[in-house]
């Protein structure tokens, strides 16, 4: 199986900066090395969709509205994303949970709406520093996953990737020990097994995100049960991101 590598640009790059980035990146990247996804700001989706035409690289968005109502000024629906060449969407990123007060019910609705519009979901989960310090990591993961996947059919899980992103590791330069990531991955599969089936638990794809860079990436390439990575800050430099991808494949 190819490794999944996801870039999350967060709130970075104008459309012309994204274009420059992709010109440089695409001139050096060999398709098919990894299952590669660029999760970009809405404003960069059109230019990226044009530039990725014919390449085996998927386009992602960083959020989706939880419903399709037309009276939602400022929001972007799943249908609009699907019509813009987007095939993946991040849901439940900790920055959105914290800054925009996204709760588990809203996250569940966003997932259902994304799936309804044939988008694949990258569901972000992870413990806070307080959870970690009070040994509540696994309980937090269980709760976040159960709430997020409530009411889904088992066959819909093929269109879901779970991203384990400890909140304390995002943008901090700190990363968990490989053993701790392995334990979190096992715990995530166990929750999926309890709520769905052993088969679903074996097949669900899980990636890790949080302070991955070109220097530390190799330690994430060999973690048992881990299907790939989600990279924030270090994906913004095309050369560094290429190094990261090359270390994973
Ligand atoms: P950093 O790689 O910048 O820590 O961000 C991780 C992240 O939040 C990806 O979604």
Number of continuous helical runs: 10
Helix content, binned percent: 40-55%
Count all strands and give the number: 8
Secondary-structure element order, N to C: EHEHEHEHHEHHEHHEEH
Gap from first CA to last CA: 10 Å
**Fraction in beta strands:** 15-25%
Which helices and strands, and how do they pair?
Elements: E1 4-8, H1 15-28, E2 35-39, H2 42-51, E3 57-61, H3 78-82, E4 88-91, H4 94-99, H5 104-116, E5 120-125, H6 129-133, H7 137-149, E6 160-164, H8 178-195, H9 198-203, E7 205-209, E8 228-231, H10 238-248
Parallel strand pairs: 1-2, 1-8, 2-3, 3-4, 4-5, 5-6, 6-7, 7-8
Helix pairs in contact: 1-2, 5-7, 7-8
Bound molecules: 1,3-dihydroxyacetonephosphate.
Residues 8, 93, 165, 170-171, 209-212, 230-234 line the site of 1,3-dihydroxyacetonephosphate.
Descriptive key words:
TIM Barrel, binds 1,3-dihydroxyacetonephosphate, 10 helices, 8 strands, 249 residues, 8-stranded parallel β-barrel, alpha/beta
Summarize the structure.
The protein has 249 residues and is α/β, with parallel strands linked by helices. Helix content is 41%, strand content 16%. The chain has one domain: Alpha-Beta Barrel (TIM Barrel), CATH 3.20.20.
Question: What does this molecule look like?
Answer:
The chain is an alpha/beta fold. It has a single domain (4-248), classed as TIM Barrel (Alpha-Beta Barrel), CATH 3.20.20.70. Helices cover 41% and strands 16% of the residues. It has ten helices and eight strands. The chain has an eight-stranded parallel beta barrel with strand order 1-2-3-4-5-6-7-8, surrounded by five helices. Strand 3, helix 3 (78-82) and strand 4 form a beta-alpha-beta unit. The longest helix is centred in the C-terminal third of the chain and has 18 residues, at 178-195. It is globular and about 45 Å long. The structure holds 1,3-dihydroxyacetonephosphate. 1,3-dihydroxyacetonephosphate binds next to strand 8.
